[in-house]
Amino acid sequence: MMRKSRVIINTVIAISAFMLAGCASSAVGISDEDVKKVANYSSDIVSQHNDKSDSRLVDVAKVKKKYQEQLDLEIKRQNFRAMEQAALQAEEQGSGEGSDDGDETGSGEYVEPDIPLSEAIGVPEFDIYYTGYEMSRSYPTEGSISADDVFMGMTAAEGDTLLIMHFNISNTQGMDRPCDIIDARPTFRVKINGENTTVQQTILPDDLSKFDGTIEAYSSADTVLISEISESTASDIQSLTLVVRSAEGRPEYKLE
Fold it and tell me: Which has fewest Cβ within 10 Å: 43, 74, 141, 220?
């Protein structure tokens, strides 16, 4: 390695001497600043062949690798946003389908679904129960268990309020078990007094549709689904129905 370094130094010195001496027909002028640049560049070339020295020249391979990592991360973010947007569009398009305006019998009466809520969501090994709703201008609400842990909250627009529906995920087995709802990719909406209402897409850690965690043996986790509705609608909720879309179909569950 030292022999190679000496060869490079000798080559650089020869080139510098040639530049200073010039050709037979003309002389090439070089300033003190240029001499320093040549010296610095020569030092960096030698350093690249010396494992014990850090070169000031940019490592192109490292720059390309860093750029590719940033590009891959941005692509993943865009794909996630595209999936979220596609789910919202599918939900909006489905809201106009005739089968959503009532049950299949056409009687206008509610028909109990054939499968449990947990199975429709994609985690049949757990029990999932609706435990009630609350109204608030923001979430997490004051005094909420998750309020100290959550890094992202929601606030309703002027004239609106948040309908916060609570669901309990229960592990009745004698061992800790992972509950991965996000991988099942269910989507939800609610019917308030028979009218379709969108369920907000959130990154809240207790969002039922995005829940992915381990529930200890004989324990449960409180999760939520949130809709933003007008204050006038909130003041007169006569019926509340949850519609689940997943690989299991599109059953509806009467909550209130």
Answer: 74
CA 210/CA 223 separation, integer angstroms = 10
For β-strands 160-171 and 127-136, DSSP reports them as antiparallel
Residue showing tokens 């109990």: 112
pLDDT of residue 159: 93
DSSP string spanning 25-90?
A: S------HHHHHHHHHHHHHHHHHT-TTS--SS--HHHHHHHHHHHHHHHHHHHHHHHHHHHHHHH
Question: Which amino acid, residue 157?
Answer: A
Q: Which residues contact 140 (CB under 8 A, 6 or more apart)?
A: 146, 147, 150, 153
Q: Any residues with CB less than 8 A from the CB of 166 and at least 6 apart, and which? A: 130, 131, 132, 133, 134, 222, 223, 224
Q: Are 163 and 226 in contact (CB under 8 A)?
A: yes
Where are the alpha helices (H) located in 107-230, listed in sequence order?
117-121
Residue 151: which residues within 8 A CB-CB, separation 6 or more? Answer: none
Q: Would you say 211 and 128 are in contact if contact means Cβ atoms under 8 Å apart?
A: no
Q: Which residues of the chain have pLDDT under 50?
A: 2-5, 7-9, 12, 18-28, 51, 53-57, 95-107, 145-148, 150
Tokens 């530049």 — which residue?
A: 19
Separation between Cα atoms, residue 153 and residue 138, nearest integer Å: 7
Taking the C-alpha atoms of residue 100 and residue 252, their distance in angstroms, rounded to an integer, is 9
Task: List all residues 6 or more positions away from 138 whose beta carbon is below 8 Å from its beta carbon.
Answer: 153, 154, 155, 156, 162
CA dist., res. 186 & res. 106, Å (int): 26
Name the token pair of 22: 């010039």
